[in-house]
Amino acid sequence: MSPRPEVWSNWAGDQRWAPAQVARPTSEAELVRVVGEARERGLTVRATGSRHSFTDIAATDGLMVDTSALRRVVAVDPATRRVTVEAGITLHALGPILAGHDLALENQGDIDTQAVAGALATATHGTGARFRNLSARAVGMRLVTADGDVLDLTEDSDPEALLAARVSLGALGVVSQVTLECSPLFTLERHDLPRPLGETLDRLDEHVDTHDHFELFVWPYTRAAMTRSTMRTANPPRPAPRWKREYDERLVQNGLLSLICRTGRRVPRAVPHLNRVMAAALTQAREQDHAYKVYACRRDVHFTETEYAIPRACAREALERAIELVERRRLPILFPFEMRFAAGDDALLSTAHGRDTCYIAAHQYVGMGYESFFRGFEEIMSSYGGRPHWGKRHYQTEATLRDRFPGWGRFQAVRARLDPDGVFANDYTRRVLGPVAAPVAP
């Protein structure tokens, strides 16, 4: 009898797969060997880090490469502020290491459990109209290809491949190392403040343009927005007492939300009232600390999520239509819409490629229906040329996506060059990128 395969799942618990083989390399040389052996056996290869994606992007029936042991810091150059790390190090682990060298990531999202390579591959971002997503700061990558080569991609060695590899969906090879350009260590002052939704949207551009980072959360069936405004400062950190942060994050932000969500799942008709209770419980809060401690928030309540990147100019109209969708259909949605902003960048499959961007995310509590909601939300966002977050649920295909990304053809050319046999393909890449096309002869 053959050994029972390992069964893997993502953080939300709604994606499951059973790879034929699992490898846990501890060095680049070992990674090269296992990828080569998989190709010889005719197995496809996918890499995974923290498995925080909501899609099946990491799922495979072939070789699953667990990169979690590749978590070392390879080099730190204080003069250039460039740091080289192995692909499996998490953003959570990286923050204090950088701080120890008086460095910081320029920007990051509000979840820091992702592995660096996975965060890059899916175009993970934070918020801030003047700041690009995380992948834009990747100035070098080492990529293990199917034929056993280790490509050292830089802006000088192969700029086109680097632009593709920054946001690759894992379709070009397995990243072993990443070189990130960092910022000097800095402090953030964050102010969370409930505001009337209409007033917030009336002044949306002002809020976005006068703060380094700005985002807002809106629960359906309410007319309140929880705004989060953050500024960089030369002031030293002044962290809140540990007990207070534990109280706010564990009991209010997660404990109360968990209770409300469990109640709403049992009694869906009560959701509008429960959302108003949640919105009324939100209070003003301030935080001043090193950036990596302020960006990320605790997430104990599990959910599934979709998110779209749209032109910034469409932000208000798109959000109001999404809220109207929920309320018109009387959908039992217990999580808020989240709105964030980012500057345009040049990674070929970046969701912010070539345009200043507004991101709008929609969520649903685990165990509750989401497809009707997410499909309706997606239709609204698609009307603005919306690009789906690669690590979050969506129903797009290669046919619907290729015209939304100006760099689509260039990415496919790099893919055909680096992985002509589709060794790094899976159901997700075949669905959203299509099959690997034959390389074009020079």
Overview features:
five-stranded antiparallel beta sheet, 442 residues, alpha+beta, globular, 20 strands
Note the beta-strand portion. Answer: 15-25%
* CATH architecture assignment name of the domain at 73-184: 2-Layer Sandwich
Number of helices: 14
Question: Biggest sheet: strands side by side, in what order?
Answer: 16-13-15-14-18-19-17-20
CATH class of the domain at 73-184: Alpha Beta
Distance between the termini: 50 Å
> Could you give the count of β-strands?
20
What is the average of the pLDDT values?
95
Using the CA coordinates, give the radius of gyration. Answer: 21 Å
For the sheet with most strands, the description reads: 8 strands, antiparallel
Detailed description of the structure:
This protein is α+β, with helices and mostly antiparallel strands. The chain has a domain at 73-184: Uridine Diphospho-n-acetylenolpyruvylglucosamine Reductase, domain 3 (2-Layer Sandwich), CATH 3.30.465.10. Helices cover 31% and strands 24% of the residues. The protein has 14 helices and 20 strands. The protein has helices at 28-40, 91-99, 116-121, 159-165, 197-202, 204-210, 242-266, 271-281, 291-295, 315-329, 371-382, 398-401, 408-418, 427-432; strands spanning 8-9, 16-17, 21-23, 45-48, 63-66, 73-77, 82-86, 103-104, 138-144, 150-154, 174-181, 183-184, 187-196, 213-218, 224-233, 285-290, 303-311, 337-342, 357-365, 387-388. Helix 7 (242-266) packs antiparallel against helix 8 (271-281) and helix 10 packs antiparallel against helix 11. The longest helix is centred in the middle third of the chain and has 25 residues, at 242-266. The model has no long low-confidence stretch (mean pLDDT 95).
